[in-house]
Amino acid sequence: MKNEKAVVVFSGGQDSTTCLFWALKQFKEVVAVTFNYNQRHSLEIEVAESIAEELGVQHHVLDMSLLNQLAPNALTRSDIEIEQKEGELPSTFVPGRNLLFLSFATILANQIGAKHIVTGVCETDFSGYPDCRDAFVKSCNVTLNLALDKPFVIHTPLMWINKAETWKLADDLGVLDFVRQKTLTCYNGIIAEGCGECPACELRKKGLDDYLLEKGVDGQ
Ligand SMILES: [Zn+2]
Q: Would 106 be classed as within a structural domain?
C-alpha cells in the first residue's frame, strides 16, 4: 500500500490521531478530513487542525452542521446532559453519524484519487453505537464501492483492540507521548488528560493505566 493514497477520518482525539500515524506508516500520501457538526467544543476542530499542521498532513474540514439540525444530541447541544441509561444508547449517540462520515470521506477520496479510507471506529470498548460495528463498516464499504463503482478499501485498525491496546499501538508507532499530550478526547473540551471525570476521560485513563501497568511504567 506504500504507493497509495488514503483519507483518514480525523477528529483530533486519541483514536483518530493514532489512526493518522498508522496511515502515515502505511501509505505514500495521507489526507485528513474532519467533520464540523457544531461539536460541543469547537476546540475539537482547532486541535485537529493544529495536529494535521504539525504533521504536515493536508487537512479538510467539511461542514456537517445538517447533522445537528436533524439530530440534536449531547455532543452538539450544551443543554443535553451526557449520560447513559441502563440498556440504552448514550446521549452522545448521533444517529447515522458514521454512515455520513464514511460516505463523505469516500466521496472526498474519490475526488482526490485516494483508494483507502481509514477510520478509528472500534467494537471493543464502544458505547453500543451500531454504526461502529465491523459488520456495518463492511456493508458500508460494499455499498460505497457500488455507488461510486470503484474498489475503495475502508481500514479500521482499531476495530478489535481495546483502549489499552490502542495506547500500545501509539507506542509501537513511536508516538505515545504525542498522543498523550496533544489529543482531545474529553467531552468537557480539555486537552491531553482531560477533566478526568467524563466517560471519555475515564475510558482513556483506564486504557492508559492498564497499558502502562502492563509495560511496567508508572503513569503518574
Ligand atoms: Zn473529560
A: yes
